[in-house]
Amino acid sequence: MLRDITLGQYYPGESLIHKLDPRIKILATFIFIIELFLITEFIQYLWILLFLGMVIIISGVPLKFMLKGLQPLMIIIILTFGINIFMTKGEVLWTLGPLNITREGLHQALFMGSRLILLIIGSSVLTLTTKPIKLTDGIEKLLNPFKKIGLPAHELAMMMTIALRFIPTLLEETDKIMKAQMARGADFESGNLLKRAKSLIPLLVPLFISAFRRADELAMAMEARCYRGGENRTRMHELEFHYKDIIAFLVVLCLLGIIVWQRLR
Amino acid sequence: MSIKVENITHIYNEQMPYETTALDHVSVEIESGEFVGIIGHTGSGKSTFIQHLNGLLKPKSGKIYINGIDITEKKVKAPEIRQKVGLVFQYPEYQLFEETVFKDIAFGPSNLGLPQNEIEQRVYEALSLVGLDYREVTDKSPFDLSGGQKRRVAIAGVIAMKPEVLILDEPTAGLDPKGHKEILDMIKKMHKKEKNTIILVSHNMGDIAELSDRIIVMEKGKVVLTGSPKEVFKNADYIESIGLGLPPAMILMRMLKQRGKHVYTDILTIDQAEKQILNLLRSK
Ligand SMILES: Nc1ncnc2c1ncn2[C@@H]1O[C@H](COP(=O)(O)OP(=O)(O)O)[C@@H](O)[C@H]1O
Ligand SMILES: [Mg+2]
Predict the structure, then answer these.
(1) What pLDDT tens digit does each residue of chain B (284 aa) get?
(2) Does the N-terminal or the C-terminal CB of chain B have fewer CB atoms within 10 Å?
(3) How many domains is chain B built from?
(4) Chain B residues within an 8 Å CB radius of A15
(5) Which residues pair with B63 in a beta bridge?
(6) Domain layout of chain A by residue ranges
(7) Across the strands, what pairs with A101?
(8) Is residue A182 within 8 Å of A188, Cβ to Cβ?
(9) CA-only gyration radius of chain B, Å
(10) Whether residue B38 is found in the same domain as residue B156
(11) Ligand 1 atom nearest to B49, measured from its CA
C-alpha cells in the first residue's frame, strides 16, 4: 500500500548513470528542466525523448518502474490537460455542453501534458539512480560556495539526510500501526470525511510518539559520538569527478545548445 | 474454531529488484482449543504468516479457511474475521493511543458496536485476565505505566474483543525476566480458563516446549517441521543447524550425556530435568 510510492525511491543498480557523480546528476537535472521550458515546438520533444530514452536504457531501470512514479501525480497531469484543453480560445473542433474544445486547446493540452510527464520522469531518473545519501552529499557540495554568505550548507544537508533516512522507517511504522489498529477493528477506509479524519487518531498519536522517540534516540546517539556540525569534518567517501562525469555533462550541455540554437533561429 | 491454511505463498514488493518471498507454499492445520507454538529464525516468515490468519495480508496464491469459510475471498467481511481471530503484534504497547487505559481497551469492543455496559464488562474482564487491578489503572494514562504494564494493557485491548483464536507475536520480546514470566503465566492461565486457541510466536524454546501442544518450525518461508514438542525436538541437531536454540533443560541433559552420564536427552522442561538429575544422584 504505502510502500508503492516510487517517486523519490532508489532503484538499486550498477549502471553508468548510477555511478555518475551526484553533483553532475543534480546539475544535469536542472539543465534538463530548463531545456523542457525552452522548448516551443512539438518536434523538439524528439530531442528530449531521444536523450531521456538513452538515459533510461543505460540506467537499467525498467520503464514500468518509471511510469509507476507518475501514478500519484496523475491528478495533476489530468488537471493540467483538462484546463488547457477547455480554456484555450481558438478554432472550435468539438462542443461538449458548455465547453469547447479548440484546435489550439488540444495542441496546448498535449504540449503541456507532455512537458509535465517528461519533467516528472526526467527528475525521477535522478532519485531512482542516486542513493539518498549521495544525493544530499551532492547538494551539500553544490551549496558550499554559499556558506560564505551564511547558508548552513552542512546542517541543511544533514537535515535532509536524516529526513530521507526516516521516510521508509516512518512508512513501515505507519503500516504496522495501521495493521495493529485494524486488528482491533479500526476502519480507515469507509465513512464520510469527518469520520475518516477521526479514525486517523489511533494512527497519528502512536506515530507521533514514535517519531519523537526516534528523534530523541538519534540525537542522543549522535551526541554520544561527539557529532558537532560541519566545521573541519572529513568524509568517508569524498566525491570526485571522473571522465565519465565530464562526458555526461557535455552531452547535457549539447542538448541545451541544440535547443537554444533552434529557439534563437 | 479450526484454521486450515492451504498452500499459501506471499511475496513482498513483487516484481521489484528487492522482492522477497516471505511465504513459500505453506500449509498448516490448527484445531480448536490447540496451543500452537511457532518458532523460526528472524525473517523466516512467522509474522507474515500470522497476519494472513486474520486477513491483514492476502496471499498471492493459496486458501485460508477459518471454520470452513475461505477468508481469501472478496465477499468475506474483514471485521468478522478480526473479531474471531485476535492478533497481538510485536511490541503492542506502541499502538496505545487513548487518554486512559479504559478507553484504550474499549477501542476494540466499541469498534464491534457493542452496547456500553457490555463494553465496560469486557474491559473489566480483560484487565483481570491480564492481571491488572481494574480500579488502580482504569483512569490512568497508558503512557504513565511501566513497560510490562503497558504491554499487558495492549494485550487486554485485543482480549477484550473475545477472539476465539488469540495470536501473539513474540509477546515477551524486550521485557525483563519478571515481565517475561508475568506475561507467560498470564497466557497460560488464560488458555486454561478460556479454552481458546492460542498461537504463540516466540524465540524462547523453553516457553514453547513447555506450553505448546504442537510446534511449527519455519525456515526461509517454509514449514520445515511440525509435531508435538517431543517429536519436534527429537530433531535437535537440525533445529540447531537452522540457527535456533533448544530448551534449556534439553541443553543441560545433552551436556551431561556428553560427559558420559546416563540421562535421557529428550526432555523439555525443568521439572523433567530435575527428576533425571535426582535419579542420577540416587543411582550413585
Ligand atoms: N512489510 C514488508 N515489506 C517488505 N518485506 C517484508 C515486509 N515484512 C517482512 N518482510 C520480509 O519478509 C521476510 C519475512 O519476514 P517476517 O514475516 O517479518 O519474519 P519473522 O517474523 O519470522 O522475523 C523477511 O525477509 C522480511 O524482510
Ligand atoms: Mg516477526
Answers:
(1) 789 999 999 999 887 778 899 999 999 999 999 999 999 999 999 999 999 999 999 999 999 999 888 998 888 888 888 999 999 999 999 999 999 999 999 999 999 999 999 999 999 999 999 989 999 999 999 999 988 899 999 999 999 999 999 999 999 998 999 889 999 999 999 999 889 999 999 999 999 999 999 999 999 999 999 999 999 999 999 999 999 999 999 999 999 999 988 888 888 888 889 998 999 899 87
(2) C
(3) 2
(4) none
(5) B6
(6) 1-130+238-265, 154-233
(7) A94
(8) yes
(9) 20
(10) yes
(11) 17
**Can you read off the three cell numbers belonging to residue A145?**
560556495
Tell whether the torsion through CA atoms of A126, A131, A135 and A136 is positive or negative: positive
Please give the residue range of the domain that contains residue B213.
3-244
The Cα A229–Cα A109 span in angstroms is: 48
pLDDT value of position A1 = 42
Please check whether residue B173 is in contact with residue B141, taking contact to mean a CB–CB distance below 8 angstroms. no
Q: Does B147 touch chain A (CB under 8 A)?
A: no
A2 pLDDT higher than 70: no
Q: Output the CA–CA distances (angstroms, integers) from residue A231 to A152, A225, A234, B44, in the order listed.
A: 11, 16, 9, 45
Q: Which protein residues are within 6 Å of ligand 1, measured from CB? A: B 12-13, 20, 22, 40, 42-48
Q: Are residues B227 and B165 in the same domain?
A: yes
Same-domain status, B163 and B270: no
The pLDDT of residue B169:
96
To the nearest whole angstrom, how far is the Cα of B11 from the nearest Cα of chain A?
A: 14
Contact at 8 Å (CB) between A59 and A125? yes
Q: What are phi and psi of A96, to 5 degrees?
A: -120, 95
pTM score, two decimals? 0.82
Q: For residues B245 and B206, what is the distance between their CA atoms, to the nearest angstrom?
A: 9
This model of the complex carries an ipTM of 0.89
Residues B278 and B207 in one domain: no
Write phi, then psi, for B90 (nearest 5 degrees): -65, 145
Residue nearest to atom 25 of ligand 1 (CA): B43
* Residues of chain A contacting residue B108, judged by C-beta atoms under 8 Å apart: 184-185
Q: To which H or E segment does residue A101 belong?
A: strand A99-102
CA atoms within 13 A on the CB side of B72: 17
Q: How far apart are CA B12 and CA B277, in angstroms?
A: 49
C-alpha cell at B47: 509474522
Q: Mean pLDDT across the stretch A142-155?
A: 88
Q: What is the grid cell recorded at A116?
A: 509535465
**pLDDT surpasses 50 at A7:** no
Question: What pLDDT score was predicted for residue A6?
Answer: 46
Give me the pLDDT at residue A89, please.
80
Please report the pLDDT score of residue B76 as a whole number. 80
CATH number assigned to the domain comprising residue B75: 3.40.50.300
* β strands within chain B, DSSP E: 3-12, 20-30, 35-40, 61-66, 69-70, 85-88, 165-169, 197-201, 214-219, 222-227
